[in-house]
Amino acid sequence: MSNRERTLNRTERLFALILLLQNRPSMTSRDLAEHFGVSRRTIFRDLRALSESGVPLTYADQGGYEILEGYQLPPLMLSARQAATLLVGAEFMKLQSDASLRKEADEVALKIRSVLPNQIRDYIDQLNERTVLDPYWLHERHVVDESEGSWYDLSEAVAQRRSVIMQYYTQSRDELTKRKVDPLGLVYYTDHWNLIAYDHLRDDIRNFLLDNIRSMFVLTERFTPPEGFDLEEHLKERGENPQNVRIIVRFAAQIYRWARPSIPAEIEEERQHDNAVDVTFYFENLKYVARWLLRFGTQAQVLEPAALREHVREEALALARLHQAEAVAEK
């Protein structure tokens, strides 16, 4: 007996079977049996039970089972753990800088809470009172005005393959440019969202930080993605970009567990020492890495390349001059 079969009783499997066929139609009895780890005879029995209970099952012309469009399940019943999972996810979305995400997450949380039985609702309320998601991030994040929230507009543009006109700020050049882009995907890195899009201005696929989009407008015009484009493959290739530089940083052991999740690239190698960890990764933007490293102060030392050490030194000196000027002004 498989783990899935042990985990799901028949009622749960029937419910899961409906959800699966609604989201992945044209699955054969063999596909379903492999998915749930049961025999085809069990699947046939389950399908017959669904049909007898009024679920409009049909067999597709191309093969496989489907549920006729328009069928809806009765309201979902959530366990305490499932409700907690959804609500913690909603709380995480409230930490985002995009106001539209925070607003929708708040409304989702209220809707979920409103349909919970009193016992589970009390459990969730007690959990909320005793759970805090990254209080430092909460206070430090850059807050985007609600009128400027772009995540949902961009997500619709990605899903519907509609081109976008936007005003984009490039920090390294202190420049605001008008871009027409074809949104290909949204990617979340550590603490910020990125748009992967074909940039008509640069005639290339580029990465755009959502926080740097000053204004945008989704066009009715539809686009065709570059032939053979795959988002995951693109991100993998970007990580293998020949312009990437080999970087080795030595972290104090006590800080590395906190630094590791925010490393802005795939880790190539980790070497443990008594009180330190040497981590190797590849990245093309040394100035970005230098600014990222400053948050760890003297607990992160650049071993190579020398160019990155110079960037860190310049950033640290600029920070020191800023505070020195403030100290003089206060005297």
Structural features:
5-stranded antiparallel β-sheet; Arc Repressor Mutant, subunit A; alpha+beta; 13 helices; 11 strands; 4-stranded antiparallel β-sheet; SH3 type barrels; 331 residues; disordered N terminus
Q: What would the average pLDDT be, to the nearest integer?
A: 82
- The geometry reads as globular
Order of helices and strands: HHHHEEHHHHHEEEEEHEHEEHEH
Assembly state (oligomeric): single chain
Main sheet record: 5 strands, antiparallel
Structural class per helix/strand content? alpha+beta
Look up the CATH topology of the largest domain.
Alpha-Beta Plaits
Domain unit count: 4
| Model regions low in confidence, pLDDT < 50 over at least 5 residues | 1-7, 136-148
Question: In CATH, what is the class of the largest domain?
Answer: Alpha Beta
Any idea what the CATH architecture of the largest domain is? 2-Layer Sandwich
The percent of residues in helical segments reads 40-55%
User: How many β-strand runs?
Assistant: 11
How much strand content do the residues show? Answer: 15-25%
Number of helices: 13
Euclidean distance between termini CA atoms: 77 Å
The order of strands across the largest sheet is 6-5-4-3-7
Computed over alpha carbons, the radius of gyration is 25 Å
